Amino acid sequence: MHNIAIDGPAGAGKSTIAKIAAKKLGFIYVDTGAMYRAMALYFIRNGISGSDEAAVSAACPGIDISIEYQGGEQVVLLNNENVNAFIRTEEVSMMTSDISKYAAVRSKLLDIQRSLARTKDVIMDGRDIGTCVLPDARTKIYLTASTSERAKRRHKEQTERGISCDIGQIERDIAARDEQDMNREIAPLRQAEDAVLLDSSSLSIDEAVDAVINIYKKGAMAVNERS
Ligand code: DC
In angstroms, rounded to a whole number, what is the distance separating the alpha carbons of residues 48 and 51? Predict the structure, then answer.
């Protein structure tokens, strides 16, 4: 399979860019953050604290996460309910960062993610795709942008969704999430040794998409030249 792994911090534009690149290349786009978010939603709804690892782990076997595609859009199903509309709040974002450090949560989603990439060409985005989920991915990209640029983009996105928010607060939340995601023990966010670094701070969406496709094509060319 020709898999593309895209990792990077919150708000770097991974999902926007990966979604468009997937369409252009005819790949399936897999947003792994959405799966962690659906798990977090379950814990919020069931009054389970994100700091209670024992309770989170005990609940994991009763949670079913799957994804399907409706009109080309990824839909995350939490125990068969489409939860796409509920997983993008700041409350869910913070809970997701809390619970994604636990082994029980990660191992559950790792299997689902790997099996998706086994049978299809995927562009998968997340935090540990190049380092853990798909270490043999043909193309690995570490997509980042400055914290202030990421906060600006997230603010615009939330405002467009009709959610009022404070940009300073968003910047602090992003920094807190990065800190937690980069410093956890299991599968921390870091650039894989063989990943290409792409800084999208001063790139438009189209330019970043072109850069991703070029990195993929160059990699594919190198593979062809070797074979
Ligand atoms: O990409 P996102 O903002 O939707 O991710 C939400 C959280 O999920 C993020 O703070 C860390 C976690 N996550 C993870 O630990 N591993 C992944 N592969 C994807 C997301």
Answer: 9
